[in-house]
Amino acid sequence: MTSNKTELLVPAGSVDSFRAAIRGGADAIYMGLKQFNARVRANNFSEDQLPAILQEAHKNKVKIYITLNTVIKQKELPRLLDFMAYLEKVGVDAIIVQDWGVFSLARQYFPKLVLHASTQMGNHNSVGVQHAAKCGFQRVVMARELTMTELEHVAQKSVLELEVFIHGALCYSFSGQCFFSSYIGGRGANRGMCSQPCRMAYTDKQEQKYLFNLKDNQQLDNLDGLQKAGIHSLKIEGRMKSADYVFQVASAYRLALDHPEQKAEAEAMLQLDFGREKTGYFLDQNVSEALAENSNTGILMGNVIRAAKSEITFFSAQELQANDRLRIRLLKSNQTVNLKLDDFWEENGRYSLPWTGKERISSGDEIYWIGRRQESFPSRLPKVPAPTVSLAFQQKTKILQQQAFRTKSTSQGSLFIRIDDTDWFPFIRAEEVECIILSLGRKQLEELNFDQKFIQKNKAKLAIELPKFIAEGQIEAWQKAIRKAEENGIQHFFLSHLSQQLLISRSSRFSCNEQVYVYNDAASKFLNSEGAQHFCYSIENDFENLKALQNRQGIVLLHTTPELFYSRMPVKLEQDKNQFKDEFSKTYTKQNKDGITIVTPDRPVNLFQYKNQLLKEGFNHFMFDLKHEVPNPKLIKKIFLNYRSGDPIQPSTIFNFKKGLQ
C-alpha cells in the first residue's frame, strides 16, 4: 500500500521521552500504559496521564498508538475489558495487539478502536498480511527478519499499511517466538518480562561467547528503498531508552527523511545514540557481521589505565563533558558499573575522577560513554480531566460468558502424536491415537512417498503441520506441496500461523498448533469461529491459568522438547555436537532446519504426573511431541507406558506448569 507521506513512528516510555519524540519530529508515538504491554520495565504512563498526552500530541498533529501487545491470561480479561473501554473513550489513534483474544474482544465490543497487528503476531509474508486485512486490521508491523526484496513483494500485494522497524535493538528469535526467558525463569517474553537470554554469554567448547547477541538495527541507508516500496510507517525501537536517545534518533531520521541530501549529517547524529554496534541486518542481505562480541551498549572510549582506591584514570579521544554518563565493564567478572562524570580532572585526553564505590575496578577495565544530555524536556503534564470508564460487572460477566463454546469431548482423553521423521512410522500404534501430525520440511514433504503402507492405512488420522516461517519466495512451492498432499488424501493441516488457512483448500480441515497462542477463552473462541478443529495451549502456560478457562477443549502438550529460540539468523558453534552451556552448566542444542536456527534444551518438558489432574479438570486432549527426538521404539514404548501410569519421563522438566508464568 503506497502513501504520500511516510510516517516516522517514535517510542516513548516516559513523559520526557514523549516530549523528546515530539521535538524530534515524530509523526506518531507509540507507548504503553502500566499494564498489558511488552515493555513492563519502562516507566510507562498511567491512565490519568493519557488525556493530557493525547491533547498535547494532537495539538502537534502527532498520533498516539497504545501498545497492548502481550498475551493475556484468563483472569486478566475483566481488567482488559475496562482498559479497552477507556482507550476507546479517550480516543487513542490505534492499539497494537498480539493476542487473538484481545483482537476479537476489541473488534466485537470496542469497534471504534483502530487495530494494528504487532510484530509479535509473526506476520512475515503476504499471506499473513492478506489474512490480517480479512480480519479487519488497519496495519501490520512486519517481522524484522525480511529482506528488501521480500518486503517489496509483500507491499505490492498489500491493501493494508505496513510498518517496519528501522532502528534499535534486535531480538535474536523471531518476535513472539522466543521461550528462552520463560523457560529459564518463568519470565515470559510474550508477557513483557523478557530477561534477555540472547544477551548472555554461553560456553562453547570451554570458551565464553556471546552466541546470540545481535548488534542494533540501523536502516538509514535503506530509507529510500523502504519509501519506494510503499512502507507506510518507519518505526524506531526504544521504549526503555532515555529521552536523549529518543530525541537524537528521531531528529536524525527526521532530517534524513525530509532532506535526503543531508544523510551524512544524520548518520553522524546516530553515532551518538549510545547503542550497540550497528547492522543493516536482513534488509542489507548480509548478516555475517550482525553479531556483537559483547552485550554492552555505548561507545567504547578505552580502558582504565590506573585504578587506585579513590581514583580512576583513563584516556579518551572523545572530549567528555560534565554530566556525561559512563559505564565501566569489569573484565574479571563481566559486571558493569554506571557513573556520572561530575567532579573530574582532564589534561590532554587523560581523565581522572574520584571513585568511592564498592566494586573493585582494575587497570584494563573498559570505559563506555553511554549518554549525554543535550536538551532538557519537561517531565510534568498539565492536569486534564480523565473520564471514569468502567463496565458494569453484569456486562463484563455476560461478555466473558459469551466467550465459551461447546464441542464434542471424550472423558478418557484423546492422544495426538507429532513427529518430524517418517522413521517413526513402524513404532506407532495408530489405533491408540486420534491424530498423527507430520512436521516436515518442505523438501521432506515434496519427497514424501504417499503410497507407503503406513500412510495408506492411516490416511484419515494423518495431518501435515506447516512451519512457523514461510518466506515470501517459498509460498508457491509450499502451496504445491500442500496440493500434492491433498491430492493424496491428506485433508487435515496443523497451522503455525493462523493465516496459513489461506494456503489450504476449502475442503481441507485445519487445526492450530501451540504457536497460535491461546491463553484465554476469547482467543480459543476466535479460533473456533475461524473454523479451527483443534487448538493447542502454549507450552509456557501454567496450570492455574488453564484451570481458569471455560474452554477446555484444547490440546495440552504432555511431552515436548520446546524450541526456545527460533531464528533466521545463523550461528556457528565450535562444539562438535552443536551444544553449548549457560552459566548454570545447563546444556542446549542448536540445529538448523530449512535455514532456521532452532535452540532446544537437553531434556523434554513432561507432565505425565499431572495427567489425572488435567482429566479431572476437564482437559481431555493430549499431545506427545517427538520432534527433536531420534526415532526409537524403546522411547515411544516408554512414553505410552509412563503416560498410562502417570510417571514422568526422566530427566525432564515441567516448565512453568506449577511455578507459574509471570
Please, could you describe this protein's structure?
By secondary structure, this protein is α/β, with parallel strands linked by helices. It has 18 helices and 31 strands. The protein has 4 domains: 7-170 and 215-274, TIM Barrel (Alpha-Beta Barrel); 172-214 and 562-602, no CATH class; 299-371, Thrombin, subunit H (Beta Barrel), CATH 2.40.10; 412-561 and 605-645, Alpha-Beta Barrel (TIM Barrel), CATH 3.20.20. A hairpin with a 2-residue loop joins strand 17 and strand 18. It is globular and about 85 Å long. The two termini are 38 Å apart. The model has no long low-confidence stretch (mean pLDDT 95).
Q: Kindly state the mean pLDDT as a whole number?
A: 95
Task: Provide the CATH top-level class of the largest domain.
Answer: Alpha Beta
Distance from N terminus to C terminus (CA atoms, Å) equals 38 Å
CATH architecture of the largest domain: Alpha-Beta Barrel
Gyration radius over CA: 26 Å
Q: If helices are DSSP runs of H or I spanning 4 or more residues, what is the number of helices? A: 18
GO molecular function, one term: peptidase activity
Protein name: Putative protease
Keywords: Hydrolase, Protease
Write the layout of secondary structure elements.
Elements: E1 7-11, H1 15-24, E2 28-31, H2 50-59, E3 63-68, H3 77-90, E4 94-97, H4 100-109, E5 115-117, H5 126-135, E6 139-141, H6 148-157, E7 161-168, H7 180-185, E8 202-204, E9 207-209, E10 216-218, H8 223-229, E11 233-236, H9 243-258, H10 263-270, E12 278-279, E13 299-307, E14 311-315, E15 325-330, E16 335-340, E17 345-347, E18 350-354, E19 366-371, H11 393-401, E20 414-419, E21 435-438, H12 442-446, H13 453-457, E22 462-465, H14 475-487, E23 492-495, E24 509-512, H15 521-530, H16 543-548, E25 555-560, E26 565-567, E27 579-581, E28 587-593, E29 596-601, E30 605-606, H17 611-616, E31 621-625, H18 633-645
Parallel strand pairs: 1-2, 1-11, 2-3, 3-4, 4-5, 5-6, 6-7, 7-11, 10-12, 20-21, 20-31, 21-22, 22-23, 23-24, 25-31
Antiparallel strand pairs: 7-10, 8-9, 13-14, 13-19, 14-18, 15-16, 15-19, 17-18, 25-30, 26-29, 27-28, 28-29
Helix pairs in contact: 1-9, 4-15, 9-10
